[in-house]
Glycerophosphodiester phosphodiesterase
Amino acid sequence: MAKRPSVVAHRGASEVSPEHTLAAYQRAVTAGADGLECDIRLTSDGHLVCVHDRRIDRTSNGRGVLSTMSLEELDGFDWGSWKNPWADLDDEAELPSPDLTKVLTLDTLLATVRDAGRPIELAIETKHPTRYAGLVERRLIEALDRFGWAHPKIGTESPARVMSFSWLSLRRMRTMAPGVRTVLLMDRIPLRFRDGSLPTGVSYAGPSLELVTAHPEYVDRAHKHGHQVHVWTVNTPEDVQHCHALGVDAIISDRPELAIATLAEHPDQPPAPPSRTRRRLVRRR
């Protein structure tokens, strides 16, 4: 029987709280998430902030390209009210607070993990392409170094791992911080890696839910090559159980509370589902 997959909160408990806010991550920690996932982008004055999109329009009341703005400018926007614009009419809505509305720096999130009172892993996705190229990874390593997590001692592991769709980003991490685990995110599997192998130095496979649903055999292939499989984004009880049945190592979910409850209700691994209609495993360019 495969062990229970770990539950990683995607942008925090982002189904309920505004994504990438401190409140979303605090809720995920309280819910018992095993890990937290974030996206990082670099501001014009060199700060790493937890924001998914290149532009700030969707998740703030500002407009424009994030990389052209300073942290002070980003601090002037509201990063939470978009989630529930009718909150003032909702008696059960979370009360406005800086934890719900301020842009979140990576340093603050790292401190949240450090101070959680229990082991929590952090999956950090670097977003590329970006005007700052490799400076993103350099600033990331500097941030991890401030917490002692960029160069773990022999016999220990950093709680942080770095994820990206960009092989180049992961290669930079391997060169500058070889002790930090890396995850290659995939929505299509390149032809050369469809046997379950990964580029040299990449620790884990990060396929999408759609990919492992169409190709459940990929999980076993990756395991045979010694790689863990971390699947995104898993948001329904059926998909949580499906991933558990496949034997994946981690599920990344907008709904960590639901994922944890589903796994608690079904602690035994169910039978693996039959293969679905096969599709090509080759990444389309």
